[in-house]
Design brief:
5 domains, globular, mainly alpha
Length: about 525
C-alpha cells in the first residue's frame, strides 16, 4: 500500500533522493580520467569547439564529426566555460541530466502509486550499476535518456488525462532529444505509442496525438533550425555522415566492430541492473498479473520494444538498453510486493562481489593464456593494482550486503536501497578510480608529458581521443616516419625500427623513432 502523499513526507523523501543522487552521480565525478573512446571523443570535440568558436559544426582532430547532434556539445561547452577544462566539467551535464531523469521518475510514480513506491523506483534507478556509470559519463546518453523519459512519461499521462500541457511537454522533450542524439528520440515514442494504441484499440486517439499541430510546431521549432543550418554548412556530407552512416548503417550492419548475437542484451540487463537484478526476475515471473493494469502494459511495451529493436540491430552497445530502463524501474517497484522471497535478492550482488574478490587469484593464470601484447600488459597492470586492499574492500561490501538482509523490522524496499548505497560507494570510491588508473591514466600521463615537452605526435594503431584533450593538440593518424614521436601500444613496438621509449605504462607507449 502506498504511503500518504503529505507535503512533509514528500519533502523528506525528495531530500533522501537528493542525497542518493549526490552519492551516486556526483561523488567522484572528476576522479577518473576520461575513458576512451566515447568520453575522449565527445570531450575533444567540445574542446575544439571552444577554440574554434564554431558553435554549429563539431570537429574531432580537425575533421568534421557527424556522430551526434549539437546539444551535448553546447552543454559541455557551457560547463567547461564555468568550471574550466576538467573531467568534472565534461561530465557535469550528464550528472545534471541524470538528476532531472530521476526526479521525473519520482514525480510520475508518486502521482500513480504514492510516495514510497516513487522513492523506490527513483532510488533503484539512481543506484543501479549501468545508470550510475552513464550519469557520470561525458557522452550524450545521460541527456538523451532524461529527455526520452520525460517524453514517454508525458505521453503516458496524456493518455490518462488528455492534458494538452503534458502533450506539449512531450513534444518539446522529443525536440531536445532529437538535438541530443537524433532520430532515436522520436523512433521509440512513435513506435511504443503506436503499439500501445493498437493494443488498446485507440488508433484514432494516437493519430490525433502525433498529428497535433501545436506539438509538431513546437518540436520543429526546437530541433529543426540546427539541422537546417548544419545542412547549409556541410551539405550532403552531413546527411551521409549523420543520417546514413551513424543511424541507418548502425541498425543495418555491425558498426566499428560492435556486433553480437540476438541474446547480447540479456547479460547486459542482468549486470546493468545490479544490485537489483533479483527484483527483475520477480517482475518477469509476475508479468501476467502486471498486464492487467493499463499503465503496466504501456511500460512493458516500452521496454519490450527497446529490447527487440536493439537485439535485432546490427550494431550492439551496452548503453543502448538503457533507453528501456525507465519503465523497468517503475515496474520493478510495482512488482516488489509480489515477491515471496525478498531475501534472495542479495544473491545476485553477492555473486558479483565474490567474482570481484577472486580477481587477484585468477588474473595471474589468465595472463599466462594471453598472446596479445597490449591485453597482457593491461592484465599485468591489473595484477599490480589489485591486491590485498581490494580483497578487503570487496569482502567488507559483501559483509555489509549480507548483514542488511538480517536487520529486524527493516522492510524489503529499504534493504534494496541500502544494498544499492553500498554498491554506489564501492563503484565510485574504488572500482571507477581503479579502472581509470589502469585503462586511462597512462594515456593522460603521456599526453601531459607531450604537452609539457611540446611533442608533435603521430598516433599509430590505437585510437585514444582523450590524448588530444589532455595534450591540447592535434595528432596525425598514419604510419610514422624516422625521427617522429609515436603514441602506440606495446604490441606494435616490434614493428618499429629502433624505437626509443619516452613513456610506457600498462600497454601504452610513447616512443621516438631513430632519425
Amino acid at each position: 500500500m502506498p504511503l500518504s502523499t503529505t507535503k512533509p513526507e514528500t519533502g523528506w523523501l525528495l531530500a533522501a533522493l537528493a542525497i542518493l543522487i549526490l552519492a551516486s552521480f556526483f561523488l567522484g565525478l572528476g576522479s577518473a580520467p576520461l575513458f576512451d573512446v566515447d568520453e575522449g571523443a565527445f570531450s575533444e570535440a567540445t574542446r575544439e569547439m571552444m577554440i574554434s568558436k564554431n558553435y554549429l559544426t563539431t570537429y574531432l582532430n580537425g575533421t568534421p564529426r557527424f556522430d551526434k547532434p549539437i546539444l551535448i556539445y553546447w552543454l559541455q561547452l557551457s560547463s567547461v566555460r564555468l568550471f574550466g577544462l576538467s573531467e568534472f566539467a565534461f561530465r557535469l551535464p550528464s550528472a545534471l541530466a541524470g538528476t532531472a531523469w530521476a526526479t521525473s521518475v519520482f514525480l510520475f510514480v508518486r502521482k500513480e502509486s504514492g510516495n514510497r513506491q516513487a522513492f523506490l523506483a527513483a532510488a533503484m534507478m539512481v543506484l543501479s550499476l549501468q545508470i550510475m556509470v552513464i550519469a557520470k559519463a561525458a557522452i550524450a546518453d545521460g541527456v538523451l535518456n532524461c529527455f526520452l523519459a520525460i517524453t514517454m512519461l508525458g505521453l503516458l499521462q496524456h493518455y490518462k488525462t488528455g492534458s494538452k500541457p503534458l502533450l506539449y511537454l512531450a513534444f518539446a522533450a522529443a525536440g531536445f532529444g532529437m538535438l541530443t542524439k537524433g532520430p532515436i528520440a522520436i523512433i521509440i515514442p512513435f513506435a511504443v505509442t503506436f503499439l500501445f494504441s493498437l493494443q488498446e484499440r485507440m488508433l484514432k486517439t494516437w493519430f490525433r496525438m502525433v498529428c497535433n499541430p501545436a506539438g509538431i510546431i513546437l518540436f520543429l521549432g526546437i530541433a529543426l533550425p540546427w539541422y537546417l543550418l548544419e545542412y547549409r554548412d556541410q551539405g550532403m556530407a552531413f546527411v551521409e555522415g549523420f543520417f546514413f552512416k551513424h543511424n541507418i548503417n548502425r541498425f543495418n550492419s555491425s558498426f566499428e566492430g560492435h556486433s553480437g548475437s540476438t541474446l547480447y542484451y540479456i547479460p547486459v540487463i542482468m549486470l546493468g541492473l545490479m544490485p537489483f537484478t533479483g527484483l527483475f526476475f520477480t517482475l518477469l515471473f509476475n508479468i501476467k498479473a502486471l498486464l492487467s493494469d493499463r499503465v503496466n502494459r504501456f511500460l512493458l511495451i516500452w521496454f519490450g520494444f527497446v529490447f527487440l529493436f536493439f537485439s535485432l540491430s546490427g550494431t550492439k552497445l551496452p548503453h543502448y538498453m538503457i533507453y528501456g530502463y525507465t519503465p523497468l524501474f517503475i515496474l520493478m517497484a510495482r512488482a516488489l510486493p509480489m515477491s515471496r522471497h525478498p531475501k534472495s535478492f542479495a544473491v545476485w550482488p553477492l555473486l558479483l562481489l565474490a567474482g570481484l574478490a577472486c580477481l587477484p587469484l585468477f588474473l595471474p593464470t589468465v595472463m599466462q593464456q594471453i598472446n596479445d601484447g597490449y591485453i597482457k600488459a593491461v592484465v599485468t597492470g591489473a595484477v599490480e593494482l589489485i591486491g590485498l586492499t581490494h580483497i578487503i574492500i570487496i569482502i567488507a561490501a559483501m559483509m555489509g550486503v549480507s548483514a542488511i538482509q538480517f536487520l529486524p523490522r527493516f522492510p524489503a524496499d529499504w534493504k534494496l536501497i541500502a544494498t544499492g548505497v553500498i554498491f554506489s560507494l564501492l563503484v565510485n570510491l574504488h572500482l571507477m578510480p581503479l579502472a581509470g588508473a589502469l585503462l586511462q591514466e597512462p594515456v593522460k600521463e603521456a599526453a601531459l608529458m607531450a604537452k609539457k615537452k611540446g611533442y608533435k605526435i603521430v598516433m599509430w594503431k590505437i585510437y585514444n581521443p582523450s590524448f588530444l584533450v589532455y595534450s591540447e593538440s592535434f595528432v596525425e593518424k598514419r604510419i610514422p616516419e624516422p625521427g617522429e614521436i609515436v603514441l602506440t601500444s606495446v604490441k606494435q613496438l616490434d614493428k618499429l625500427e629502433s624505437p626509443a621509449i619516452l613513456y610506457s605504462k600498462y600497454g601504452i607507449v610513447m616512443v621516438k623513432l631513430r632519425q
